[in-house]
């Protein structure tokens, strides 16, 4: 039977919603990826670091304006000292090798997390990269390094409490959004989509406050195998999700 395009039930049902403006990724599975190849864990981290460039490059093509990557958690210090040292060396190497490209691509880089326990040289390099890219805006890349949401929330709560104690904020005015300006992510919108690679279905202390209304995607792909194609598939699925934020939509 002939049916005009506007009567096509599939065409009529517009399933595409706004693109994910802020995507946050828990980059997991480097160790298992390496183990499966009979290689040391650090080799997996090295191959994982290479994937960052591809994902950064792909984001603007999909309308993603903010990309946040979980690189090292406040709990990751529990790993063997050699793995921790290897990861820290990799972060320094990443900054050295990627700065020029990130500047050229118009990427603005920020770091979130507690910098206090990090090596001073790494801290200087992080500040240098933030400064070198501060005027960029094609993509906002945020790297969570020594980040833990509970740590972030307790640091934020302490600063809010100090402001209340000093009379700068009234205790009566403290509400659901009061912590926002004290969070490491104060300058960033909340993530629309949180992706975790490697098949684990947990958030491991990542953006607990900010992800209150995020969509979640858990993919079995290990981070060193994650690239443009898998990102595209996940973003397409996100586009057909209906976000309700507690309301009833007709
Ligand atoms: C993610 O990969 C990288 C970091 C946590 C730094 P893992 O190192 O956690 O890899 P798996 O989970 O052991 O495979
Ligand atoms: C989460 O991965 C942290 C990062 C990806 C940086 P983990 O591998 O540390 O998380 P758990 O231990 O499996 O929860
Ligand atoms: Mg892991």
TrEMBL record:
<feature type="binding site">
    <location>
        <position position="41"/>
    </location>
    <ligand>
        <name>substrate</name>
    </ligand>
</feature>
<dbReference type="InterPro" id="IPR036424">
    <property type="entry name" value="UPP_synth-like_sf"/>
</dbReference>
<dbReference type="GO" id="GO:0008834">
    <property type="term" value="F:ditrans,polycis-undecaprenyl-diphosphate synthase [(2E,6E)-farnesyl-diphosphate specific] activity"/>
</dbReference>
<keyword id="KW-0808">Transferase</keyword>
<dbReference type="GO" id="GO:0016094">
    <property type="term" value="P:polyprenol biosynthetic process"/>
</dbReference>
<dbReference type="GO" id="GO:0005829">
    <property type="term" value="C:cytosol"/>
</dbReference>
<comment type="subunit">
    <text>Homodimer.</text>
</comment>
<comment type="similarity">
    <text>Belongs to the UPP synthase family.</text>
</comment>
<feature type="active site">
    <location>
        <position position="28"/>
    </location>
</feature>
<comment type="function">
    <text>Catalyzes the condensation of isopentenyl diphosphate (IPP) with allylic pyrophosphates generating different type of terpenoids.</text>
</comment>
<feature type="binding site">
    <location>
        <begin position="29"/>
        <end position="32"/>
    </location>
    <ligand>
        <name>substrate</name>
    </ligand>
</feature>
<protein>
    <recommendedName>
        <fullName>Isoprenyl transferase</fullName>
        <ecNumber>2.5.1.-</ecNumber>
    </recommendedName>
</protein>
<feature type="active site" description="Proton acceptor">
    <location>
        <position position="76"/>
    </location>
</feature>
<feature type="binding site">
    <location>
        <position position="77"/>
    </location>
    <ligand>
        <name>substrate</name>
    </ligand>
</feature>
<feature type="binding site">
    <location>
        <position position="28"/>
    </location>
    <ligand>
        <name>Mg(2+)</name>
    </ligand>
</feature>
<feature type="binding site">
    <location>
        <begin position="73"/>
        <end position="75"/>
    </location>
    <ligand>
        <name>substrate</name>
    </ligand>
</feature>
<feature type="binding site">
    <location>
        <position position="33"/>
    </location>
    <ligand>
        <name>substrate</name>
    </ligand>
</feature>
<feature type="binding site">
    <location>
        <position position="196"/>
    </location>
    <ligand>
        <name>substrate</name>
    </ligand>
</feature>
<keyword id="KW-0460">Magnesium</keyword>
<dbReference type="InterPro" id="IPR001441">
    <property type="entry name" value="UPP_synth-like"/>
</dbReference>
<dbReference type="Pfam" id="PF01255">
    <property type="entry name" value="Prenyltransf"/>
</dbReference>
<dbReference type="GO" id="GO:0000287">
    <property type="term" value="F:magnesium ion binding"/>
</dbReference>
<feature type="binding site">
    <location>
        <position position="45"/>
    </location>
    <ligand>
        <name>substrate</name>
    </ligand>
</feature>
<feature type="binding site">
    <location>
        <begin position="202"/>
        <end position="204"/>
    </location>
    <ligand>
        <name>substrate</name>
    </ligand>
</feature>
<keyword id="KW-0479">Metal-binding</keyword>
<dbReference type="InterPro" id="IPR018520">
    <property type="entry name" value="UPP_synth-like_CS"/>
</dbReference>
<feature type="binding site">
    <location>
        <position position="215"/>
    </location>
    <ligand>
        <name>Mg(2+)</name>
    </ligand>
</feature>
<feature type="binding site">
    <location>
        <position position="79"/>
    </location>
    <ligand>
        <name>substrate</name>
    </ligand>
</feature>
């Amino acid at each position: 039977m002939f049916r005009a395009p506007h009567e096509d039930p599939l065409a009529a049902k517009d399933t595409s919603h706004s693109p994910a403006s802020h995507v946050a990724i828990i980059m997991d599975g480097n160790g298992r990826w390496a183990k499966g190849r009979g290689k040391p864990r650090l080799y997996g981290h090295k191959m994982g670091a290479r994937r960052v460039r591809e994902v950064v490059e792909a984001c603007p093509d999909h309308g993603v304006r903010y990309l946040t990557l979980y690189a090292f958690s406040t709990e990751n210090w529990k790993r063997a000292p050699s793995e921790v040292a290897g990861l820290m060396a990799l972060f320094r190497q990443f900054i050295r090798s990627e700065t020029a490209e990130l500047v050229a691509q118009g990427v603005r880089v920020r770091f979130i997390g507690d910098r206090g326990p990090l090596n001073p040289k790494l801290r200087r390099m992080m500040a240098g990269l933030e400064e070198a890219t501060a005027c960029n805006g094609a993509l906002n890349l945020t790297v969570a390094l020594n980040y833990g949401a509970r740590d972030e929330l307790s640091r934020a709560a302490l600063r809010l409490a100090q402001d209340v104690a000093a009379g700068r904020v009234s205790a009566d005015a403290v509400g659901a959004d009061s912590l926002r300006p004290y969070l490491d992510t104060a300058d960033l919108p909340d993530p629309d989509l949180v992706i975790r690679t490697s098949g684990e279905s947990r958030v491991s202390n990542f953006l607990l406050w900010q992800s209150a209304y995020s969509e979640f995607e858990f993919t079995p792909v290990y981070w060193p195998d994650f690239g443009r194609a898998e990102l595209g598939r996940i973003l397409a699925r996100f586009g057909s999700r209906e976000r309700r934020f507690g309301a009833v939509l007709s």
